[in-house]
Amino acid sequence: MPSRYRVPTGYLVGVAVFLLARPSGPSLAAGAGLALLGESIRLWASGHIRKTELLATGGPYAHSRNPLYVGSSILALGVAVASASLWVVLAVAAYFLAFYPAAMREEAAFLALKFPEYADWRREVPMFLPRLAPGGPRSSRFDWGLVRRNREWRTALALPLLAALLYARGRFLP
Length: 174
Prior knowledge:
Layout: H1 6-20, H2 25-46, H3 67-83, H4 86-114, H5 118-124, H6 144-149, H7 153-172
Helix pairs in contact: 1-4, 2-3, 2-7, 3-4
């Protein structure tokens, strides 16, 4: 599916999550832990990336070429667990399978053309599932200014709102 539909479809999946969720205290707690882990990875990755300027190869980019997607996947898994609904798990999985593999391939092709050092990094670092020990060149360094510039604060601020919505869904709606 074309990546231009990724964000609008994500909003539709978000509505489906809310409507289909049947959260409980334990599911919210388990999901929150996973969501926080996913957002932590996204924050770490956002502090390394200078989009289209430099190839990020340090920090989480020494473990996976797509740590933002890894973090997003874990965050989404947390939301699915918090929702306590098989339908939500299926909707989230379908969304990720429909968009993320193509997005990673598109970005890999772009980076290969833009950055000559991409080939060496690609040989050492897996596309998605992280390697345990860091690999490849590790030239980027974490910078909170990049987190702000990359607007990761929006996702970090959305998590408490999402948690409140799921809590309200489980507490006040049938």
